[in-house]
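User: Okay, second chain of the day. Same drill as before: sequence in, structure tokens out.
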Amino acid sequence: MAISQVGKYGPSKALNRTLSALDESCKQAIAYHLKERYDIDPLSEPTLAQIEDAIYDMFGEGAEILLARLHTELRHGTAE
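Assistant: Same drill. Structure tokens below.
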């Protein structure tokens, strides 16, 4: 079973919950770049692969921090 099918949230909800852990201005900046550079609207239904590719492209190896939280959200519905 794919990771996006395990928890109670899909990739879109998990992305929004992950970004909510950030300062509001950081969250808005990341959401803006996801939309403008990668045509990913966090309110739509992007695939996990689309999200991961965009986050890696934006942050390089630093993406692991956000993606670890995203994967926790997908598995358990909470990264807290």
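The longest helix spans residues 24-38.

User: Thanks, on to the next one.
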